[in-house]
Each structure stands twice: as C-alpha cells, then as structure tokens.
Design goal:
Elements: H1 4-19, E1 27-30, E2 39-42, H2 44-51, H3 55-65, E3 77-79, E4 83-86, H4 90-101, E5 116-120, H5 135-150, E6 154-158, H6 167-174, H7 191-204, H8 206-220, H9 224-248, H10 267-276, E7 280-283, E8 286-295, E9 301-307, H11 315-328, E10 334-337, H12 344-356, E11 364-367, E12 373-374, H13 391-409, H14 415-435, E13 443-444, H15 447-450, H16 458-475, H17 493-503, H18 505-515, H19 519-538, H20 547-570
Parallel strand pairs: 5-6, 5-10, 10-11, 12-13
Antiparallel strand pairs: 1-2, 2-4, 3-4, 7-8, 8-9
Helix pairs in contact: 1-3, 2-3, 4-17, 6-7, 6-8, 6-9, 7-8, 11-12, 13-14, 16-20, 17-19, 17-20, 18-19, 19-20
Length: 579
Amino acid sequence: MQSLYSRVEDAARAAISQAFPGDHDPVVRWSAKPEFGDLQINAAMALAKTLGEKPRDVAQKILEHLDLGDLVGIEPEIAGPGFINVTLSSAALTHYANKLLGDDRSGVASVAHPQRIVVDYGGANIAKEMHIGHVRSTVIGDSLNRTLMFLGHTTIKQDHLGDWGTQFGMLVEFLCVDGKIPETLPHLDDLDMFYKQAQARFKSDEEFATRARARVSLLQGGDADSLRAWKHIYDETMTHLLTVYSRLGVLLTAQDSRGESFYNDMLADICSELEEKDIAVISDGALVVYKDGVVDRDGNPFGLIIRKSDGGYGYGTTDLATLKYCADVDKADRVIYAVDARQSQHFQIIFDVAQRAGWINHTSPEHAAFGSILGEDGTPFKTRSGDVVKLSDLLDEAIDRAGKLIAEKSSEFSNEERTELAEAIGIGAIKYGDLSNNRAKNYVFDWDRMLAMEGNTAPYLQYAIARINSLIRKALPDDVAFGPQSEFVISSPHEATLIKQLSRFDEVIREVELTLEPHRLCTYLFELAQSFTSMYENCPVLKEPEDSLRKSRLALCFLSARTLRQGLDLLGIKSPERL
C-alpha cells in the first residue's frame, strides 16, 4: 500500500513537473513541529537557483499545481524562504490506518525494481575465536541484509573469512607429530590457545619456523595432507562461528562462507590483467596499485601491494577478486561491505582499481563503514586484564545480567521461560546498543544503558510490545476483531500523532535502504513507542465506555505492536510475547 508520505511526494513531483517541466525531485520531510504542519515540501530553493527566480515565487507556482485531494483538510501554505507546509486531514489519517490493518507488511511497499545485492559481513579469522570487535560488522551487516530482503531485493550473504595465507603453514605444522600430520587430528577446544601456542613456537623454535615456512609452499601447492589438516582447522573454526552466529541471531550459515581461499585461483590472473592494463606497476619487486589523491602520512602516494616481491598475495588482491566475482558471477547491482572505518582508504583503492579495470561497470560497491566499540576510558573495550573480550563470553554476561533483571522484576516465570527471556533481552540489548548508534561513529559500551528499561533501548521496546500484547489479551476475543473493516475514530491529537508515526515506517525503511544506517530505524521505533505511550496514557482503552472509541484505540494498539515487532525483527531482535 502507498504511504501518506509517498502520496504527498508523488503529488509534489507531479506539481513540479507541470509548473517547471523537467526532471526535478522534490524533498519531502516529516515535521516534528505542529506550526510547520505534518510534512514540508522543499523544492523551491534548489529550483530558484536554476531558474533565477525568487524561492517563494517558485513555491507559489508549485502550490498552484499541487493536488493533494483528500490528504489535507486545510490548504497547504508557503512558509519561510519557500517551504510548502502540508497538514494531513483526519479523514486521510483514519483511512490510512484502516487500510493498514489489512496490510501485514505494516505499510511498507516492496520495491518496484528489485536488485541483486551482495552483503559482505562477518569476516572472522580461521583458528581464532570471535571477539567483541566482530560485533559491529555482524549485526550491522545482518540488519542491512534483513531490511533489503524485506523490501524485495535478492541478497547474497557473504562471510568473508580470513582462511588463507602464510600463517596457515604455521598452524598446519603445529598439528604435526614427529614431522607428520597424524591420521586422526585433535579436537581444538580453545582456538585462541591453539593459535597462541603455534605462534609462540614459531617465534622460539627456528627449526619449527623453517618447517612452517616450507609447509606454506606445500599448502599453496595443493599437497593433499596439508590441505586435509587445513580443512580440519577450518571445520573446527566454523563449528565455533556457527554457534556464535546462532546465539547472536544472525542469518549467516555455512553456505554463506566465502573465505579468502575461495578466490585463491583467481589471484594470478587478477594481477596479470591489472599489469597488462597499466593499472598495476612494479615497485621494489612488488606489484602495486595506486589511486590519485590517496597518500600516506608523509604526503607520498600510497600504494596497495597486490603481489609481494616473493610472489605471494595480500588480502588486497583477494578483495579485488571478490569484487570482480560479485560483478561477474553474482551479477550484483550493489556490493555492500560492513567493514571497520579504518579500512576506508583500502576500499577507496579497491573500488577505484576495479572501476578503472572495467570490472564493475554495472555494479555499485559501497563501504558501510563503522567506528569502534570503546570502554569507559575511551580506549578499545577490553577485559580487566587487558585482553580482547571473547564474543561468546560477552553473550554469556549479557544473558546473565538480563536474567538477574528479570528475577528482580517478576517471579511469575518458569525457569524455562526465564532462560528464553534472558536470551532475548540480553542479546537484544547488545545488538540494539550497537545498531542504535550512528555506525560511522565510535561508541562507549555501557551495560547499564543497554539493559535499561527506559530510554532508547531494546528492553524498553520489548517491554512496550509485551505491554500491548497483555492489553489486547484482556480485550480479546469478544471486544474487537482487527481487520480493514474496523472504523477508526480520532478524538485527540495523541491518536492522530500515533497514526502519523505509524505511516512513517515505509519512509524510514527506504532511508535505511539508501543510507545503510540502521540507527534511523532504531530512532523511529523509539519515537513510535513514545507516541504509543502518550496515546495510551491520555486516551483510555479498556475503560473507554464508547464502543467505537475503544475498538479504534485497541486497533491502534495492535498496529503499534505489529510495527514495533516488525522493526525489531529487521534489526534481528526478538520480541517476547510477555515480560
């Protein structure tokens, strides 16, 4: 169904086309200030510069052609330098709310032109456990993937694992007994310990280090025994990763894994083609690519090595192969990388080189860069001993803290219910605490803020949904049947404001699609929950004596809960039925 926002946008576009023929897109914004109406059409200023006219004169010509039909109860008016303020009518709001009841997508229309979109997230390293540094890429990428799928796009999830390179010679050799890889390989209980022990031996035992270097050649040359050991390390790591992904509630599976090893056979051809096209040049024996304007700290041109002087390849070469594969094989319209902002310069070069090579003429690569998670002291978040926080330990603590919170609030839940609620609230708190922050910025990890039952947090939204569920359970089945046949009555500005908030859901989802910023959805859900609370506190629901008003308000409660639930699902967060 078409939202109120998009109807005004379409009407504005038609009016501008009639007044000023040509391709002009209006800017339509929701207004939070009643004196500015509900929506503002802002096109006059930009058009005035092009046409050489006064903005208010341009706005007047747009207004003369603006046909909003029954959307407005009072005539739109010009304000300020050339804004056109639009106030929606009660009839438009009730009609929209009535239609919304019959739309199980909460008013969000599927895209007219679906795309194929690769979403690159995850990216842990083999033989290492996931740590807190992997939270952002995983939950941001998963939320973007869910949102794009919901809109109707075909998404290709990609878990770009660090599963190839010289360190695997060291790891495979560490599995050897008397210089040979045993038939039965051991279960790796602690991946981090296994890696640290192998690394320590590599540094302290020169004979072992020599064998490890030789093992790299065997591994990269396809030696069956070495590959068997590498596959064992890979499988052991995947078992860990998939367990964490499941606990975290993200959609990545084993089938989504495309590690660096996947692209290994492409790397030589990548380098040869770039060299033939004079995009890559030899520097000190290495093959290097540059991008105009990208310099190091000293102001010198910064080059990305794609083939080392010893003939080896770096992760930059793999990233180029990945992007080429996404364009050639996946036929991707967009490739989205949910990767740390510290890799921004790296991706600038990757995207530029792929463009100059002609590999992505029909593919748009985008870096959804994010900042770091900090401790209270403003430095990267670590344990008290200074170690990196394991992600599994972080999830355990979140669930434990949430369990204590539930126990303090209520004793009516069974042990099984308390366990399920603790997982939903604790893990939801971590994910929402990350996603509600502007991804481009650093943020401070704060347990108390994340688990607070008030404010812009997952527990607050989860509680709001549970509260509405409880209210509806008390009213059903005799008081109301929710469906498009229900009649809405607006008797207060609180009800009107809630419907306006509900109608914004489509617009916000489209903003996330465009900007790749999940915090916009979080902000919207918090504002929607606040609008519901305001309506509920000022407009009696179950105690309302007038039948039509009671049914109307119950229907608004239902729509609020459904939209909040849908929004949290797009963030990958569960909504318990009761709390």
